[in-house]
Amino acid sequence: MAHLEEALAEKPAILNEIAPADLPRVPLVANNRSFAWITEKVCGIAEGRTPVWWWWCFGVACFVASFTVCGLIYLVSTGVGVWGHRSPINWGWPIVNFVFWIGIGHAGTLISAILCLLRQKWRTSINRAAEAMTIFAVVCAGIFPVFHVGRVWYAWFLFPLPNSNWIWPQFRSPLEWDVFAVSTYGTVSVLFWYTGMIPDLATLRDRAKVKWRQIFYGVLAMGWRNSSRHWSNYEMAYLILAGIATPLVLSVHTIVSFDFAVSLIPGWHTTIFPPYFVAGAIFSGFGMVLTLMLPLRAVYKLEDLITQYHIDCMCKITLATGSMVGYAYMMEFFIAWYGANPNEGFTFINRAFGPYAWAYWIMISCNVITPQLFWFKKVRHNIPLVWILSLFVNVGMWFERFVIICTSLTRDFLPSSWGYISPTITDIFTFFGTFGVFSVLFLLFIRFLPIMPMAELKAVTPQADPHAGHGEHH
Amino acid sequence: MSAPIHGLIAMFETPAQVMRAAEKVREAGYKFWDVHSPFPIHGIDRAMGVKRSKVPRISLAGGITGFCTGMSMIWYMNGFDYTLTVGGKPFFSPLFAFPISYELTILFTAFATLIGMFVMNGLPMHYHPLLKYPNVDRATNDLFYIVIEARDPRFDQRATRELLAAVGGQAITDLED
Lengths: 474, 177
What we know:
The complex is a heterodimer of chains A (474) and B (177).
Chain A: H1 2-9, H2 14-17, H3 35-47, H4 52-78, H5 92-117, H6 127-148, H7 174-207, H8 211-221, H9 228-261, H10 273-299, H11 308-338, H12 342-353, H13 357-369, H14 377-380, H15 383-410, H16 425-448, H17 454-459
Helix pairs in contact in A: 4-16, 5-6, 5-9, 5-10, 5-15, 6-7, 6-10, 6-16, 7-8, 7-9, 9-10, 10-11, 10-15, 11-12, 12-13, 13-15
Chain B: E1 5-12, H1 15-27, E2 33-36, H2 44-48, H3 55-81, H4 94-121, H5 129-132, H6 136-139, E3 144-149, H7 157-166, E4 170-176
Antiparallel strand pairs in B: 1-3, 1-4, 2-3
Helix pairs in contact in B: 3-4
């Protein structure tokens, strides 16, 4: 014992000769901004006059959103035949779009929950907007399966209610699991988003000068008054929400992948699907976060809050998840060969060289090759280029779902039923319109709600450290 | 003495100041008092002597309820009330009931956590004396406040005011009830 203590008390001789490396932490809020500056900056966006560009964007977004509305009205009034489904491809576009949108949402929860648990403080600048993105993406995603059931007025059959023959839903079906996964995901995302927003809504309430703002923010803030006794419960609640949102986000895309993996269709019936879908979802979501945040940063001059360091981090996660997706593509091919199942092997050869080869190679170039550019610092520091690459990621991930669904369904076990799916104009417009729906919601969010968590941003600045001043006060 | 007051409020400029002041106020034996800060200050709980939050217990109860709800709902619907024969599979098995029970565990935990947080904090409370304080917007912006309530047994207009001044509080004022 004594020896050990002596050894510990004695500094290694080497420490007298070398100075320990001083690794400066990259500041998360650049230019040493004060608390009041952060409040002013973030609240200013919601409080200032509505910018002209906002009205233009809002008008265009509403117009685009009307495509979805018209498409769905046409669908309901005419019948599902207006969509390009025909046997054997009964899943077609709507399910591609559903998986695409639900995947986008995953980055929001990853940023808010998983990075919170991993204490990645850089998440604070982008988590609010990313969570909003999640919720709006789930809204867009939800449209498709609901209308895909055909007679949409029977969509309530999916819920655990007895139908007109007093029969309950069939819980052995992964599609039924999906209903619960997606609705839970949407609900928990809203709760998490709202919980994070309460202190910032209180800030907006206290600054509000106009009556309707005082009432609007006042009601939403629930009388929050920044009490430390409240913060204690609040931080615990936030941590628990992060803790449960983490298994949730992993389970949602796992269950979405079960829709495929639990079936027997070649190319779908694989165990790699859950992890591969989750990685792909996070990849596509980060693509969308970059697509949204970079213009927002430029328009509102948020360079001090979303610094180059934040963009670097996002690019690196895109690179990591993109590489995982690329690995999964290779693994699928390998297992198709190694598994020695002729149907499986045929499906993969057919994917790469069959009638949908064009879609397959778009997918490979956008998802596997594009993110590899993020290895280079020069690329990550070139903001317009990062933005363009993020668009490629979005396109690539849509094609991934298209390839998975369409190649497998058009070439199933029975060659007599083989087919080729092409979307109808209604298919295309309905999907195109969801970008409008998403934009309308996102524009309303940036206009009326705090787009960044001010309380969390203040807490990661150096002056928030209660031990910072100890030196001077002995 | 005129109208009854809610308590005394003192302003502090930095987290370090309010942290040291909080330690002194706790040592002076006050029970009904609070620190208001624009963000949660790291370590203020210990300085104030606030115990660990009890929200996790409510969350756990919510999670268990959610899991049991999922399992029993599926057993009742598919295994008891109206059995459906699908592919010769059993009418009920915890395995196929698991994904939905898992999701419901999370759903119920989330609601329990949020509601638990509100109940523990006594929110929503849209009227509170602090919200009438003219500089309340600074508490949600960039300044730090300590409020000692008049209902505290140790509260005394003069002594409490002196304590707040001694620990470095500025602009000490009465908080109207």
